[in-house]
Specification:
This protein is an alpha+beta fold. It has helices at residues 7-21, 30-33, 56-68, 121-130, 147-152, 160-163, 199-202, 236-249, 262-270, 295-308, 321-332, 334-341, 353-370, 399-407, 431-434, 437-450, and strands spanning 26-27, 49-51, 73-76, 93-96, 112-116, 133-134, 170-176, 182-185, 211-218, 220-221, 225-233, 254-260, 284-292, 314-317, 345-350, 375-380, 386-392. The protein is globular. Strands 14-11-13-12-16-17-15 form a seven-stranded antiparallel sheet, sandwiched between helices. Strands 1-2-4-3 form a four-stranded mixed sheet. The longest helix is centred in the C-terminal third of the chain and has 18 residues, at 353-370.
Length: 463
């Protein structure tokens, strides 16, 4: 790390990086400060410079130089994470993969696609669709989140219920170690049982073990069309009953099952960009989606039988892509929710579905008991055991105290402090809630072996 006052050292660093990537691709000064290194954006980025390599060889050269000279490197993708995983300090080298956006033609026989790490998630989805395939990882930040970032955080998203996390979609991987060594495991095989699966070390490692540069992703056959329902329910027991019913009655085609507490929907609707799809307000809302070549028939059958069983209080069923998109737009409008609750603390946790209602009720009581004006909004991928918790107390200085109220109860229900966004800086003090001391010790040992000088993404996951 370079002291911020050492202008001579910065100049020498920039000169060396320019030699590697060219003068147009090393950014300093105001070009650094105009960027944000996290979400939601709160302050301009700090870094000695941003370097933008064009390929794996340039990434390797950058890391070899920085590692040899004791410089800290922070890899950056779309910078849409919630835990400070791409956050930099004034002496860091921010390494952006934004120029590495090559997409190879789809291997139609192997059902795979090879991409560079800087490719946006949405671009991979579009390339797969154009070839008659489907890339199932999907999330609200699809237009800005990069493949490297989604792999480095093992991103989840809206279709985990059916297809699993990002880890399940990665067949091959190329990563550059801290000293510049290129480790290539670019394998296209689904079955390759030959010793340690080294690529899996980097999935979810948040750039602390190596920088992901390329990947071979598994594609799925086009699953068909989407049919979506926005459902109102009287209680959380009905939410769980609908999930169980939809799983059993949808012939394996249930792709998304998103729960929304009424406060979340109210805050988003109050911002004026959306309308509640139902005539009346309800205690809980579910966004349910079936993807199949007979999706409308399946959804109609699921909803009709759920209605006959008294599970559903009300429902709006999409009859067009526009209607389905409108349902999802309400669910995905996190910016509206943040605007309504600003300043807001954002959490991404997981816990068994049977504990969710009690957890949220008790958290709400704890928050209002401590701050009379506290507000809470909750939504999430309930079928995956994942809730997103959004808290407003009115004061940014309350963050540590709110952290404790959110995380401490997870110990008693075998929950996790992070379901899909990783640890970064924001959650590292609470890692012991979800990982044993021995697990953390082994993780530290692995970090020491692969990055003995602490070059890569320093201060993330571990302090």
């Amino acid at each position: 790390m370079i002291p911020s006052s050492s202008m001579e050292a910065v100049a020498g660093l920039v000169e060396e990086l320019v030699r590697i990537v060219g003068p147009a691709h090393v950014l300093t000064g105001e070009d650094v400060r105009q960027r944000w290194d996290g979400y939601p954006p709160t302050a301009p980025m700090e870094a000695a410079c941003i370097v933008r390599p064009a390929d794996t060889a340039q990434v390797a050269a950058i890391l070899a130089y920085c590692d040899a000279h004791g410089l800290k490197v922070v890899p950056q993708g779309g910078r849409t994470g919630l835990v400070g995983g791409a956050r930099t300090t004034s002496g860091d080298v921010a390494l952006s993969l934004e120029r590495m956006r090559a997409i190879s033609p789809v291997d139609v026989h192997g059902s795979t696609i090879e991409v560079e790490a800087g490719v946006p998630l949405e671009a991979v989805q579009e390339a797969a669709s154009a070839a008659g395939f489907y890339y199932p990882v999907d999330l609200g930040a699809r237009g800005s989140a990069t493949i490297g970032g989604t792999i480095a955080t093992n991103a989840g998203g809206n279709s985990v219920l059916r297809y699993g996390m990002t880890r399940e979609q990665v067949l091959g991987l190329e990563a550059v170690l801290a000293n510049g060594t290129v480790l290539s495991s670019m394998n296209k095989l689904i079955k390759n049982n030959t010793g340690y699966d080294l690529k899996q070390m980097f999935v979810g490692s948040e750039g602390t073990l190596g920088i992901i540069t390329r990947a071979i992703l598994r594609l799925r056959p086009d699953p068909g069309t989407k049919a979506t329902a926005f459902v109102g329910l009287a209680g959380f027991d009905q939410v769980l009953a609908l999930l169980e019913h939809a799983l059993s009655a949808s012939d394996g085609a249930l792709s998304s099952f998103e729960v929304m507490w009424p406060s979340f929907v109210d805050y988003v609707v109050e911002e004026g960009r959306h309308q509640l799809p139902l005539m009346e307000k309800h205690s809980f809302y579910v966004l349910l989606e079936i993807v199949s070549h007979r999706s409308e028939t399946l959804l109609d059958d699921v909803m009709a039988s759920a209605w006959e069983r008294g599970i559903v209080a009300d429902a709006a069923i999409s009859r067009s892509v526009a209607q389905s998109d409108a349902f999802w737009a309400l669910r995905d409008d996190i910016d509206a929710m943040i605007a309504a609750l600003s300043p807001v603390f954002l959490y991404d946790i997981s816990l068994p579905q049977s504990h969710m209602a009690t957890y949220v009720e008790e958290l709400s009581l704890a928050l209002t008991g401590r701050w009379s004006g506290a507000r809470l909004a909750v939504f999430g991928h309930i079928a995956d055991g994942n809730l997103h918790v959004c808290v407003h107390t009115g004061c940014p200085d309350d963050h540590d105290e709110v952290d404790h109220l959110v995380y401490a109860p997870l110990t008693g229900c075998c929950g996790s402090i992070s379901a899909e966004h990783g640890i970064g800086i924001e959650k590292r003090a609470h890692l012991g809630i979800s990982r044993s001391r021995i697990e953390i010790d082994v993780m530290r040992q692995l970090k020491t072996v692969l990055d003995p000088r602490g070059t890569l993404n320093h201060g993330k996951i571990f302090s």
